[in-house]
Amino acid sequence: MYFFKELFTPYETQIKNTALDIIKSDRKIFRRESGKTANALDFSLLKARMPEIVDAYSHYGLKCEKAVAFVMYRRDDLKLHVDHDPLYSHGRVLLPIYNCQGTYTNFYSGCKVIMSEDDELRKKYTFRSQETQGRPFYAIEDPQNCVLAQQIELKQSTLINIRAPHDVTLPPGFTGPRVVLGLMFDRDPIFLFEQ
Length: 195
Ligand SMILES: [Fe+2]
What we know:
The longest helix has 13 residues, at 12-24. This protein has a 6-stranded antiparallel beta sheet. Strands 8-5-10 form a 3-stranded antiparallel beta sheet, with no helix packed on it. The protein has a two-stranded antiparallel ribbon with strand order 6-7. 16% of the residues lie in helices and 30% in strands. It is built from 4 helices and 11 strands; from the N terminus they run E-H-H-E-H-E-E-E-E-H-E-E-E-E-E. Fe (ii) ion is lined by residues 81, 83, 162, 166. The site of fe (ii) ion has 4 residues, from loops.
């Protein structure tokens, strides 16, 4: 299974600076007042501030359509999980925005992933319980069997396989916040693993 692949965009620094500016100005996101780790960014605002974002990955055949901010202060903010995204089902491009040094995105294998629609299981297994209400999600049936397969300290745009069980670890004494930008496109970027 592919877990991650580092990508390149000439607009990396510009995307980081613009996104951080927008995220920092929103306490719901930056201070987690929304209570959520993942918050969609206003893409029309991002696009207005930085029109280049739409075609920043066009050399990979991708058109950017959506952005999400992931903000963590504690390890528990992002539990071990498998994403279920009906639109962008396998791949997501992540950009380290703030305080990512020394933090790791970990990928696991060896455990059993099941699809469920059970609301009790949802509370137990997903960190976006409100948003995924009524939709199917993936649960890891036997987390004790998950074995660390690979890990990455995000340093540049990185495609990750969100269908692999994953979590994020923070260094000791971390006070945060760790901010990562997730980008979604007009097609699932998972095909880039084969190139
Ligand atoms: Fe995820």
